[in-house]
Amino acid sequence: MGLNDVRIIGVWEMGGIGKTTLARVVFHMVSNKFEGCCFLANVREVYEKEGLVRLQEQFILQIFNESMSILDVCHGVSVIKNRLRHKRILLVLDDVNQLDQINKLAEKRIWFGSGSRVIITTRDRHLLEILEVDEIFDVEGLNYNEALHLLSLKAFKKVHPPKDYIEVSKDIVYYANGLPLAIEILGSFLFGRSIDKWKSTLNKLKEFPNNEILEVLKISFNGLDEAEKEIFLHIACFFNHKIKNDVVKILAYLHLSPNVGMEVLVEKSLIKVRGNRLWMHDLLQEMGRHIVYQECPKEPGKRSRLWSFWDINNVLTINKGTEAVQGIVLEFYVPEKVDWNPEAFSKLQYLKLLKICGVHLTNDLKHLPNSLRFLDWKGYPSKSLPSSFQSNELVELCMCCSHIERLWKGTRSFEMLKCIKLTKSQKLIGTPDIIKVPNLMTLVLEDWIKKSLKISLSPTEKYEIVIPGSEIPEWFRHQSIGVEVNIKQPSHLYNEWMGIVVCIVFCSHDVDHQISCLIPLYCPLTANGKRMSPALGSSLLPKVLPDHLWLLYVTPQFFDEKSNKLLSEGDENGFTQIGIKIETGGPGEEVKKCGFHMIYNKDIEGLDRTMAQHSNSSISPYESLAVIVECDKAK
Fold first, then answer.
1. Which of 60, 102, 227, 270 has the fewest CB atoms below 10 angstroms from its CB?
2. What percentage of the chain's residues is helix, strand, coil (to nearest 5)?
């Protein structure tokens, strides 16, 4: 406080956390040290109802204790700058939500005399960063003891709750989760009421949140744009406490620009990122779910999102879904038997997100919506996907631990599908025809036991799969321990070159299996010491503890014309030096072996011969560059 510079301090956090209360305490503690003081409360509300001129008039009135008629905003700015530039003041701008409010009240430090202090409370951290404030103070919620003490003061006018009320008081404290606003409102409401009333109120809150609390929390939500609101509601309904990268990926499939949107939600204190997980306060989550509930309180099938078993089971059992439903997420750790109508999904024509885990169907489904962009059904009980399912919107298909024998029969169009995961689907007897899946980039196959599976590659520029394994088959003529392989090939073979197949043995160390994450592997191809463009492989692969194989196939069309020309340029002896060098994205990742095979026209006749000598799987291209994976035992 003793410094003579003008300092601006930001106080930031979610609504109801106590920013205003904290600012008032500081204001009253130090106001006698300044020549003039002003606490502009509820800036957002006054701005919306009465405008900036009214705020400027209040500012002048409190500082000089005189009433002044401000002609317009520009006049107000001029008065503030001219009359306060030599005056040491304390100014609190409470609940600011727009930059224009600050610009017209305290835009620059030179407006105020030496030693002045400006405190700004806001829910929007980005505003404080734009202003380049001297310090941002993040307000923390109350701990358990502090919350219980505040509740006792409000509900009993005592420091501690009466003995008979201790347990129910604890339940209220846990419900409020450190939010002072909630504790004050509930404590005041419960003052003088019986234990039975306390218990019934708590039970009611679980289904019908307190409107007074919701309205305060909803202010930040109302300030979001439509895409940001969608992201917030998805997190509130489906993704609280989930891995951030997984959520970003799914929201990107939904075309919601999640990286930008999540940054805004963090700045407005609607979510936090703790470690690698998203975190939303329980009452904010409750508020988001209540917004969705209010879309149609009596008919869940007319809401945009469904997450509770009761609602989902009701809608799908009696087939009461509508076009309004865009997302369904239902996860059980213990399998639950359900009697869903086989036609249940036929009415959900705009369903984009479906994530199911631990559901045992008594009847096979006849339909899945072709509008789906992300489908994750762990333990899918049927032998195949419904015959009518052919989505050109689907980007990722996850059928881990499923009873799938074959995803689909014949040829189906999945033009946007990039990733198929069939981990631990041990009943699988074959993979589908993917000739009409032109964008498929990743196929993850794990834990297949004594199966022979054929993967027919379409004429694509690039294809890759990840499977368990620790040995590179002998068919890969050029192999090396470590991350690098270099060979020399006659340059005249360039005209017969058809592609290159790379095989890499990789693993991760110290993997936390509770965390789903990906690792980047980068595989550039060089010709005569120069890197070909684009890189042969640059992929985010599943983080796995045991050894796995990354198999990568590209054709000449994958590279640009300049890079292809490098392969035809031989040295004085007519040879081209070709090499790969694998780069990893982190210290915990290891590439143990790598190998590659250049494919020429002359090789095609022999490509049916199986690449043996593989302890877990053998891989053998045939005339259409198919890959055979034969798993003899599980690792």
1. 227
2. 35, 25, 40
